[in-house]
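Input sequence (1082 aa), recorded before submission:
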Amino acid sequence: LTWKAQGLSADRLSQENAVMIKDGGMVPFIVDPNSQAVEWLKQHAHNAEVVLQQDAKLVSNLELAVRFGKTIIVQEVDGIENFLFPLLRRDLVRQGPRQVVQIGDKMCDYNEGFSMYLCTRNSNAIEALPPNAACLVTRISFSVTRAGLEGQLLGETLKHEKPELEHRKSELLQKEEQLKVELADLEKQLLTALADASGNILENEPLIQTLEGTKAAASTISESLTESSRLQVDLDNERDVYRPLASLGSQIFLLIRELPVIDHMYRFSLEAFMVIFNQVLKLQLGNTSTEEKLRQLGNHLKIMVLFYLSRSLFKADRLTFGLHLVRGIMPEKFEPNEWELFQGTYIPPHMPSAPPPSWCPQDRAQSVQILRAAFPKIDDHWMLTKDAVWAAWAASDKCEESFDPSVFSRMSSFQRVLLVQAVRPDRLESALTQFACEALGVSSLSPPPLSLPKLHSDETHSKLPILFITTPGADPSQELDEFATKYAQESKPGMNFHQIAMGGGQNDDAIRVIQDAAKNGDWVCLKNLHLVISWVPLLEKELKNLQPHENFRCWLTTETHAKFPPILLETALKVTYEAPPGVKKNMLRTLESWNQKWFGDGPEIRSQVMFLCAHFHAIMQERRTYIPQGWTKFYEFSTSDLQSACETVSLLVHGARSAPKQPGDVGIDWATLIGVLEQAIYGSRVDNEFDSRLVKEYLAMFFKSDNVSPARIKTGAVEIPPFDIPASTTMLDYRQRVDQLPDIDNPASFGMAPNADRSLQRINSTKAVSMLRQLAAAVSGAGAHGASAGMADIKAWTAALGPLFQLWDNVTKGPLSKLRGVEVRSVSPDDPPVVAFLLMDTMEAGKLSDLVSNSLTTMQKIIAGTVLSTPDIVAEASVLMRGEVPRTWTATWPSAPEEPTAFLQGLAKRVEALKSDWVRRASSRNPIEGQVVLSDFLRPDVFLNALRQQTARALSVSIDSLHLVSSFEPALLVGSSAPLSVNVHNLILEGCAFDSKTLLLTEGQRNSPLVSVLPPLTIAWMARDTHPARAVSSAKNATGVSMPIYVSLSREQLIAEVVLNTDSTRQRVLNSAALFLTESAT
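Predicted structure, token format:
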């Protein structure tokens, strides 16, 4: 009770930690993220001296404390300094009657009254201690636990709702403590009396009277203690009425603590959560019953936490957080195995015998069958066999809102999500957003628009830094400057606003400005902290130690950085500030960053081409929204690229003035400009040849005389830019053109397929599911701690790896069990390259299957306790629990899926295909006769190389003289010039449509399928000199376009390229049309 009065939390963990601090034999090393323990120590250890480890006077203060027996609290301990080791080891040297110890280079008298406490707010500090330091301190952590936090929140709730209960609880505890002390005193008196008695104690009347009095008093005290315990039980029952709200709060905060798995910047302190919790408790909800009031408070808590955190998360991660929150606090919304099936970690043991419903699209049949296998009763319950109910739904534009009333009530809200995921993944993002909003009782997962005046007045104070986490191209400093100016004029005349852009050696200036502003009540904004990461801890400690004027505010901006100090992230009020999406907003930002004097300094052609550069830059950046279809990866097209482009334009225009005029010359050398942009600026960032081809196509479309000509000819195809360029040097004229653009981009404005936005939904929802899997792995206890210790966490392994064990057992006992006896002969020198490849690939697949089986079996035995764990197997298990695939498994399968479930499914499929079909075909006269599915192989690119090598032998030519020729008409690729033609089946097309009549690639429609399966494509390696064309077709007016073949829709592994016929080569390039071996990673 005394400790509680001194500020120590009442939960059990805090009390136990306090006992360790008080009675531990070594110096305590205290991890205290919320600074509660430090505040208690200051009260408990009277006259204790508090000093920072970074303080220049630390050593001298320590010497004085050692000499005069004082207590010293060292805060912000990042690690154990060398001069502390003699004190920690108690390396005392006796010199006559006194003891001395070495501190630094001095020997100091040691006073036995000396005590020291090392404190840090860094949650990872204990793990970071080296072994030689860890063994010298008592490691104590005040990190939050669920039970401790629940008790803390219950106390806060009772303080608001029923303060008398908490008061009575304290009185009862105090009375009980007093009674226990009295009972202990009586025992002591009794023992003393017995010890002092002389003679026959049975004849000692004073002693007997003392004993009888003690017995009576003890009996009375025992009765009082029993009554006190009974009252405590009754009191706890009254208090437990309010426990559900405290339990909900602790659940929510622990879910919040898991967010750094998504992004290092998503860190939040208990102190900030307690502020929200107390705000909820202060809400006036009218006269309602206690249960109803707690229910309403719980709903308000969910919403306030959602909006507070959403403001600190990037838009792309808000859906993930919303779903994470719903899953964590509303498990009743999910039936058994539903969440696991949604994540892809549950695989049903048997597939249904009935074929998929006739209304189901062909490319979604497998997903629907998996859903039916997982929940066999849904056929009847959801009436899946009725075309009248589902055919229109499957084809509707917004299927998540178009469920037939007859089945809507038969499905839970999450079951509707599962069906959308199976049939219409292009609408899954919308369905998930609708589900999360409905569960949390909000209309949107995004917070209300940011208002700096409201943020300043409602949530900030002088001790709280405000941290803007920005994306490239976004800068809140201008908006902040305008608000500061307006606020100073209206409310605080004389207040100054200081801005410093970090990264140029201004660290000392920044500290000085902050100190002066804190004294005077000014505002400071430090920009681009990500450029001075190593200095940010010093900034955080400076801010913590300030005693600022009440009007002082510190505003900070940074981009995301993996090494940004966690303590500042937790203590600051975070706001994400993203550049608004869209070509229009992008161009407006560019125009706002330019000034009229610079823009108009030259002839019209200079202004026109610089405007074209701005539009080109916007297209380059905004197309990244559609990764991996827009670009195969994220390319860092930055503002500096645009600046370089504009400087190039200025130089070329200036050079053209002095050059002699040529017919048709518009005042700029287009070829040079395109060359610089392609080779030195934008194109130099691109490392995929098909992305480079796209850059080249855009450059040819943008930078040509026709675009700056008044008599521009419109082709009717994609118009880039979509407006006439004004013949002017006035920025306002160009601004008017930009205002004509739509606020929301249409994929067709980039030249992409009209249905690319539906593809974007599928990509976004896939990312959200992947993040949720990572969060689940973090919750299950996976991480580096177990692996580093070489120990297996049995409970965590069982929960996280169980689905993988079940999946592999189903596979090995099912399809693969029949193939165990299949013998694969060794490769002989006489085998043709294709046969040698088939045999080697089959052997590699078998070895990989055995390796995976051995690893998973060993993990199961470790869980069962029949074998001991090893560091290697623990490391593999940790990787699997993080949702990744061990490197030892992917060494012989370069294009392997990165997710364990997909990896196991893909491996089983390939082992089955190779051992059941390809081994037999390898012994035939022509193994490549009939259909060939490239996704059957571990290394399909090696298969194509083997085919090339065998063709070169057959034609007696060099390998380099061959190129790959393709056709949808097999009869055109036969004869002596194409001795080895292959019919490739099941290739998937994305980005455009295929006309089966003309056999041409054509532009897709808005409602076209996102992907389609191509008819069999015949390919053959042929000599360039005898057959220069790479596409063979009987179609007229067709042009060829080189199409990449990737392993999966992620476009990470390129296998080959083929030339197919199309009605427009440029359009297919802009579409980023491509072929794939599989739709999923398997």
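Checked by second reader. The chain has a mean pLDDT of 85.
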